[in-house]
Design goal:
The complex is a heterodimer of chains A (327) and B (318). With 327 residues, chain A is of the alpha/beta class. Chain A has two domains: 133 residues, Response regulator (Rossmann fold, 3-Layer(aba) Sandwich), CATH 3.40.50.2300; 148 residues, Response regulator (Rossmann fold, 3-Layer(aba) Sandwich). Chain A has eleven helices and twelve strands. A six-stranded parallel beta sheet of chain A has the order 2-1-3-4-5-11, sandwiched between helices. Chain A has a six-stranded mixed beta sheet with strand order 7-6-8-9-10-12, with helices on both faces. About 7% of the residues of chain A have low confidence. With 318 residues, chain B is mainly alpha-helical. Chain B has a domain of 195 residues. Chain B is 75% helix and 1% strand. Chain B has 14 helices and two strands, in the order H-H-H-H-H-H-H-E-E-H-H-H-H-H-H-H. A two-stranded antiparallel sheet of chain B has the order 1-2. In chain B, a hairpin with a 2-residue loop joins strand 1 and strand 2. Chain B is globular, with a radius of gyration of 20 Å. At the A-B interface, helix 1, strand 2 and helix 3 of A face helix 2, helix 3, helix 4, helix 11 and helix 13 of B.
Chain lengths: 327, 318
């Protein structure tokens, strides 16, 4: 009996110890924990795609610069709004000075409003809530504008005539709705272009690849593939290459995000034609948090970070300007 | 079953097995005390834990019925997602609260009972039937909401999570449901039949029990629990999301197993499950407070399931 209980106790201790270790490596600036130091917490929606990985890396890097001023703690909700509510509720217990959050969807609104009502400044990153102004500031890109710019680029490349296959991201979330909406807005002005609304491929490369493989079985001619992110554009391109081993005239491939080394390389080699930068808001969020802790008020409630197009011509310059691209 | 363990000279082991959830929970509370007493034992954190407990706790109570029959239900996460969308859509469309809630509860019971009937009628493994239901119900949720989320619910369901006598109504509901389920399982013919079916199906059949109805009853009870959990989930998230509840069945199963109920059926009960759910939620909260990476936390949870199931099986091998 003693042995078994000892075993269970040892395991429990192990959980405890590794918890402590993880807290040290997972958070920047906690080497010398002091109770007086301010705490900034960051609730990430998920860390599963390359864009979020760059987002995480840049946020942590920015927080590391401020480790003299505040402690930084982050948690990832693995895409589950229920879990993110739990995380935010638990964060509130720790009484942080600023809450940074990239919400999974509108379902997180209640806990975020609870934090705001408790007097914690809330900085929303990348996504905001419909019909709620209970936040201190919002920082993000403009997906609708990106969708429009992608539409303009495609219309110009196709000279206003042709067929576009749009491979879609997670159907119910804002970025997908805007990347689709902005694009379709421009397409409405070009009646010569037909848009085929492809499946929800969840922003995932392998799903887009399987979808494209099946689509190509139909033998329908397409002039352009517009993916709601680069991963899906790459998946579609891989499927195209597999179906056309001898090459031939490929359609134009356009993606969004421009956060990976691989994408820039593919643009340089001509496998992808263009992508649009979707700026990561983490670093700007941490800087704003630092200002708030110093007692400054944010100058604007909504800070929109600009996009830019990346093509073969601009690829090298883009790489120099953005050293933190995902490998 | 405890007898066989005793025969092998493991008399004490049956006690560990019976109270493994409680032992685990107490150990966890000690660990929490040593790691972060300041935040973990803050009264606000108690409210926080109770708030988080209701959904996984109620799902786990329902899952206990199914597991006691020797079955398993992988579809509860998907059913929760669907009912989350249904109740949101109804309320946003202007239907009154009472009909919306009644309809949600009815759907939960009907779908749960239907799954139980299919398991019984086809004699397929519950794992397969509920896996199919998990996929289909998730698809239905997306079709039902036309791939979008349903918002505009406001605080219409907020009464479910508002504090009553110091703790959230959702926590009261969970406690009440656990108590009622304990009474049903231990004090009614239906409850004894659930144990009989899970303990030895052949014997139960020869004893003339109507196995189909016991199964339908157990799965319907589970469906009712899922519906109640879905209402509380909706109150907390204030929207309908077709992806809601993804993988929640795993937390429910973990709570049941940690609580000492045998996955083979026929042994265990809802009081253990309550402790198991408390364990899972306290573990989640502690992992968040200590800043442990979510995915590392998932690794630990898997290990804990393995240990719990192993402890259950020690001394019971034939």
């Amino acid at each position: 009996m003693r042995f078994e209980i000892g075993l269970v106790a040892a395991l429990a201790m192990l959980v405890g110890c590794s918890g402590g270790e993880e807290a040290k490596t997972g958070t920047t600036g906690s080497e010398t924990p002091s109770t007086e130091k301010a705490l900034v917490v960051f609730s990430q929606a998920n860390s599963q795609d390359p864009w979020r990985k760059v987002f995480d890396a840049e946020t942590k890097a920015a927080a590391a610069k401020h480790q003299k001023h505040f402690e930084f703690d982050m948690q990832d909700a693995a895409g589950d709004p229920g879990k993110q509510n739990n995380i935010v509720d638990t964060f509130i217990v720790k009484q942080p000075k600023v809450l940074l959050i990239s919400p999974t969807d509108d379902g997180v609104k209640p806990s975020v409003e609870k934090a705001f009502d408790a007097g914690i400044p809330v900085i929303l990153l990348d996504r905001d809530f419909k019909g709620s102004d209970k936040f201190t500031a919002y920082i993000g890109g403009d997906n609708k504008d990106i969708g429009r710019q992608a539409g303009e680029y495609v219309a110009k490349r196709l000279n206003g005539k042709g067929t576009v296959l749009m491979i879609q991201g997670i159907a119910q979330i804002g970025p997908t709705i805007d990347r689709r909406g902005g694009f379709m807005e421009v397409m409405a002005k070009h009646p010569g272009i037909t848009v085929i609304e492809g499946d929800d491929c969840g922003y995932q490369r392998q799903k887009a690849r399987s979808y494209m493989e099946t689509f190509l079985q139909k033998g329908q001619k397409i002039d352009c593939v517009y993916g709601h992110n680069d991963e899906m554009a790459i998946g579609a391109r891989l499927a195209w290459d597999a179906a056309n081993p001898s090459g031939g005239a490929a359609p134009i491939f356009v993606g969004i995000d421009a956060c990976q080394q691989e994408v820039v390389d593919l643009i340089k080699s001509g496998k992808l034609d263009a992508t649009f930068k979707y700026p990561t808001p983490g670093a700007a969020g941490v800087e704003l948090a630092a200002k708030i802790i110093k007692g400054e008020k944010p100058t604007e409630k909504r800070m929109i970070l600009p996009t830019e197009i990346v093509t073969k011509e601009t690829a090298d310059a883009y790489m120099t300007a953005n050293p933190n691209l995902a490998k | 079953m405890a007898l066989s363990a005793r025969k092998l000279g493991f008399g004490w082991l049956s006690h560990v097995q019976r109270y493994q959830g409680l032992i685990g929970l107490l150990l966890l509370l000690v660990v929490a005390y040593s790691l972060d007493a300041k935040h973990f034992y803050d009264p606000r954190n108690l409210a926080n834990i109770l708030n988080q407990l209701a959904v996984p706790g109620i799902l786990a109570v329902g899952m206990t019925f199914v597991i006691l029959t020797g079955g398993i239900d992988l579809s509860v996460g998907s059913l929760l997602g669907l009912l989350n969308c249904v109740v949101s859509t109804w309320i946003v469309a202007g239907t009154g609260l009472v009909p919306s809630i009644a309809y949600t509860l009815f759907l939960g019971i009907a779908i749960g009972g239907g799954i139980g009937y299919i398991v019984s009628a086809t004699r397929l493994q519950p794992f397969i039937v509920t896996l199919a239901a998990m996929v289909s119900l998730r698809g239905v949720a997306y079709v039902y909401t036309n791939n979008g989320t349903v918002s505009g619910l406001g605080d219409k369901l907020n009464f479910l999570i508002a504090p009553q006598l110091g703790i959230p109504l959702s926590a009261w509901i969970m406690l009440g449901l656990t108590g009622v389920s304990a009474l049903v399982l231990w004090g009614t013919v239906f409850g004894r039949n659930v144990y009989a079916l899970g303990g030895n199906e052949e014997a139960a059949r020869y004893a003339g029990l109507r196995l189909t109805w016991i199964r339908v009853g157990a799965y319907a009870a589970n469906g009712l629990c899922v519906a109640i959990a879905a209402l509380i989930f909706t109150a907390r998230n204030t929207n309908g999301d077709p992806s809601a509840g993804t993988a929640y069945e795993l937390d429910a199963i973990t709570a049941v197993v940690v609580g000492g109920t045998s996955l083979l059926g026929g042994y265990g009960g809802v009081l253990g499950t309550f402790v198991g759910a408390m364990f899972i939620v306290c573990l989640n909260v502690l992992l968040i407070l200590k800043g442990v990476n979510t995915y590392v936390g998932m690794g630990w949870k898997g290990l804990i399931i393995l240990i719990a199931v192993y402890l259950q099986s020690v001394g019971r091998r034939r």
